[in-house]
Structures are given as structure tokens and as C-alpha cells.
Amino acid sequence: MLRSVLRASTTRLGVTGSRFCSSAADKLVITEVDDKTGYATVTLNRPPVNSLNLELLTAISETLDDLQNNKSRGMILTSSSKSVFSAGLDIMEMYKPKVDRMKEFWSTLQDVWFKLYGSPFPTVAAINGHSPAGGCLLSLCCEYRVMCQNYTIGLNETRLGIVAPTWFMASMRNAMSRRDAEMALTLGTLFTTDEALKVGLVDEVATSKEDAIAKATAFLDKFKKISPQARSMTKQALRSKDIMELEDNRTQDIDLFVYAVTQPKVQKGLEMYLEALKAKSAK
Ligand SMILES: CCCCCCCC/C=C\C/C=C/C(=O)SCCNC(=O)CCNC(=O)[C@H](O)C(C)(C)COP(=O)(O)OP(=O)(O)OC[C@H]1O[C@@H](n2cnc3c(N)ncnc32)[C@H](O)[C@@H]1OP(=O)(O)O
């Protein structure tokens, strides 16, 4: 039985929420812990499409700290939207940006990646909707992905005229073959659920969000008889090379992001992409 909000982090106004205080609907990230299993279901809750702006990333980062501090037994990452897991990075954070905010934004994304990719507790993404770019990255940081039917997922950055950073690429390479990752990254492929299953980008297909959560729970249950310490040390050892590479290059990575995104050609591309998105949603 799900117990109510353990901690719902930063509100949409950017104010840190406290335990059990205001309604979960106001929160950017809702965390519920199952009394029996100890598993936390973490729900992204930034309508309409869970695009990752600085505030949402901060809320995710704080949530991951809470789970780690509380020695979480496992986390299921999902979304409150009926059709979108996450639309990826909020393009408004990159279009006509203020450099200081942009640096904080990228640094917070790096924090989320470190904490999720390297988390000591087991993690599963219950992908109950579309999951392009940064949305796909969040799911790739998890150890297992269950995806509902008839959605799309992938690192589609090249289609936007931008280059996915090397740590995005490493996360994808960790889930599928190097060859498939190279094809997917260079083409910016958005896979359907069935195609994603075929290349190993997702591990299981679900018929509904409930089914996805049930399958995610079954994955976490597999670790019941495994020593948590042995499990987490093994996971972290396997991922340590990717983690150290970014740790050693954090500042250069932020500078490269700012440089790349502020290029006039990239700004023009983002403008056109935003216009196309707006025109589509106005139809
Ligand atoms: C060598 C190293 C070099 C380093 C250089 C670093 C540079 C790399 C930098 C960044 C990497 C980028 C990562 C990203 O994540 S970029 C974001 C990519 N995201 C997408 O392409 C997805 C775009 N969205 C969609 O395709 C769709 O919205 C959808 C499929 C997710 C959902 O479709 P639907 O339910 O039909 O919703 P709408 O399209 O109608 O959208 C509703 C509403 O939301 C707005 N919106 C959608 N996505 C975003 C977004 N990512 N950011 C901001 N806003 C978004 C959309 O415009 C609508 O707005 P409205 O018209 O005002 O209602």
C-alpha cells in the first residue's frame, strides 16, 4: 500500500516543500514509499510534458539525496502525465539564455546524472509516455526500463542540430550494443516501444502504467536476496569509468555546453524547433 508523500521537493514556484504539507499536485516531484517493500515511486509532475527546467532538475536532485540518505531499497521513476514520461530538457533554458542560469542548469543536470547513474539503490524507469532526449537520458540512468506501448524514446539531439554530450552517449552505450548506439545517436533515432525493446533500449513492454509499475516492482524484488552492499559496489564499479570521466571534466563540459548552445546557428535551430512545436500543439 502506498503511503503518502515522503517528501515532495521543490514546488513549481521554486520553494522547497516540507513533509506532508501541501497537496502533492503542487509538487514538481512526488515521492511515495511503499510501507511493505520500502520502494519509492518518484513521479515527475511538471505539466504538460515534464520538460526538465532548472527547478524540476533541482527537485529531482533533492529527491535523490533524500532517497540515498534514507537508505532507499529501490526507486521507480515515472510520470504523472498520461502520454509523456519527459520531453527532455526544457528548450526555453537554452533559447536566448542567461549565461549564469544556463551554467547552473547544466551543472544541476550533471548532479542528477551523477546521483541517478551512480545511485547505490536499484532504479527502474516505468516509462509511461514519450521519452525523447533528456527524458531518455533519465531512463538510461536507471538500471532497468519498462515502457508502455505506442510511445517513442531515443536521444534525438542530432535531429535538433546539437550533439549529445559524451556522458549521454555513455549512458546509451551502457544499455545497448555499441553498434546500435552509434546508429541511434548519429541518426537521432526516436524508437517506438517495440523497436526500443528489439535493440535493448528498454527491457520490457507494459500494457499500462499499472503494469509498468508492477513489472518495475518485480525487477526490484529480484534483489531481495542479494546483499545491498555487494549489489551497489558492483553497479558502481561497472559505471565508475563513465562517472570519473565527467567528474574530471565538469567545468569544461559546462563551458562547452554554453559555447555550443549560444552559437547563432544553434539558436536559430532552436527557434525553428520551438516554432514547429508550438504550431503542432496549436493544431
Ligand atoms: C561534443 C559535446 C558537445 C556538447 C554540446 C552540448 C549541447 C547539447 C545540449 C543539449 C542536449 C539536449 C537535450 C534535450 O533534451 S533537448 C529537448 C529535446 N526534446 C524534444 O525534442 C521533444 C520535443 N517535444 C515533443 O516532441 C512533444 O512535445 C512530445 C512528443 C514530448 C509530447 O507531444 P504532445 O503531448 O503532443 O505535446 P505538445 O508537443 O503539444 O507540447 C505541449 C507543450 O509543451 C511544449 N514543449 C514540448 N516539449 C518541450 C521541450 N522539450 N521544451 C520546452 N517546451 C516543450 C510545446 O511547445 C507545447 O507548448 P505550448 O504550445 O505552449 O502548449
Automatic annotation (TrEMBL):
GO terms for biological process: fatty acid beta-oxidation. It catalyses: (3Z)-octenoyl-CoA = (2E)-octenoyl-CoA; (2E)-tetradecenoyl-CoA = (3Z)-tetradecenoyl-CoA; (3Z)-decenoyl-CoA = (2E)-decenoyl-CoA; (3Z)-dodecenoyl-CoA = (2E)-dodecenoyl-CoA. It comes from the Eukaryota. The keyword Signal does not apply. It is found in: Mitochondrion matrix. Pathway: Lipid metabolism; fatty acid beta-oxidation. The keyword Isomerase applies. One of its GO terms (cellular component) is mitochondrial matrix. Key enzyme of fatty acid beta-oxidation. Able to isomerize both 3-cis (3Z) and 3-trans (3E) double bonds into the 2-trans (2E) form in a range of enoyl-CoA species, with a preference for (3Z)-enoyl-CoAs over (3E)-enoyl-CoAs. The catalytic efficiency of this enzyme is not affected by the fatty acyl chain length. Homotrimer. This is Enoyl-CoA delta isomerase 1, mitochondrial.
